[in-house]
Amino acid sequence: MGCTVTATLDGRNPELADALWESLPYQSLQGHALVAGEHLYHVAPIHSLLHLQPSHKIADRREAPDGTVFCSALQHLSIKYGELTEPMPAAPVGRVRAEDMSALRRAGQAVWEAVYSTKKQILVEVRKADTAGGHRIPRLAAADADAERLIHEVHAETERIWLSEPAELSDMHRGWIPSGAGTHQTVLPTLLFVNGETRPLGYASYGGLIRAAIADMPMDSVRQMAILLVGVPAEFLGYCGLEKLWDFTQRFMSCLDRLGRDDFLAVARHMALYINCLGGWNLHLFPWDAADPLRRRRPAAVGQAA
């Protein structure tokens, strides 16, 4: 696209802003909200976003000025560029400058078209103003040998798919599903279920486990919750075609009993980032325009039909 906008970090939520600043520069697949409205977001390679607590929240992000930049515990950097419909609290860190708002809106429309229909891959580069760009995904370490090997492989796989669509998802979206998942050779239901399992696995399950460990929940309880929360959805996703995710999960479970808090957090943070990256690609590849004729009806139209 060749579109550049500049935002200023304005002093709100300094811990989140510092985490963002220290992560720069990086690149990511640019996404667009599919339910909430005119909102851009992407997965940011910032492990600490999963647990940092904002000191300031906007009670309803619909009321935030256009151009507001947010960081979230979903590991997202997002920007409101127009009307939003979803009322939820959000943590602002900055604002796009006024002279760049028209460019931001053009970018928003182009990304929407890419996500919804054309599937053009639009990458975003986030960097400090007037500095060179680049990209890196930070790597954590573990003392346990098996956990360290797992981190190495999960990190390498995350780097491999971060800016290039994962082959497992590409195959799935083309109808190549070796397990035979999809009743009567259908594909769309499988894609829908994969999307529905992947996002909460990264956002809620791993994000929640990380926040629990950070909050000093007893590790026996954290380990038990990990067994309850991540095994079943990962096994199902492996059956649907995400075999690497299932393999990584089994290896995590096999060493879980001996992991201390620091090692557990290191592995869980890398698993969360990997899964959130898969989720971003799945949202991009999903054939959202398959039901294009089905449109939300306004209340007056619903009343007339009744």
Descriptive notes:
The protein has helices spanning 14-23, 101-118, 145-162, 167-173, 188-214, 219-240, 243-255, 261-285, 299-305; strands spanning 7-9, 26-29, 31-32, 37-43, 68-72, 76-84, 92-96, 123-126. With 306 residues, the protein is α+β, with helices and mostly antiparallel strands. It has two domains: 7-126, Cyclophilin, CATH 2.40.100; 145-290, no CATH class. The strands form two sheets. A six-stranded antiparallel β-sheet has the order 1-7-5-6-4-3. A two-stranded antiparallel ribbon has the order 2-8. The longest helix is centred in the middle third of the chain and has 27 residues, at 188-214. The radius of gyration is 20 Å and the shape is globular.
> Uncertain regions: pLDDT < 50 for 5+ in a row?
none
| Amount of beta strand | 5-15%
Which term fits the overall shape?
Answer: globular
The residue fraction in helices comes out at 40-55%
Query: Mean pLDDT, as a whole number?
Result: 95
Figure out the total of helices.
Answer: 9
- Widest sheet, order of strands: 1-7-5-6-4-3
Which series of helices and strands comes N to C? Answer: EHEEEEEEHEHHHHHHH
Largest sheet: 6 strands, antiparallel
How far is the N terminus from the C terminus? 45 Å
For the CA atoms, what is the radius of gyration? 20 Å
User: How many strand segments?
Assistant: 8
The helix-and-strand class reads alpha+beta
Question: What is the domain total for the residues?
Answer: 2
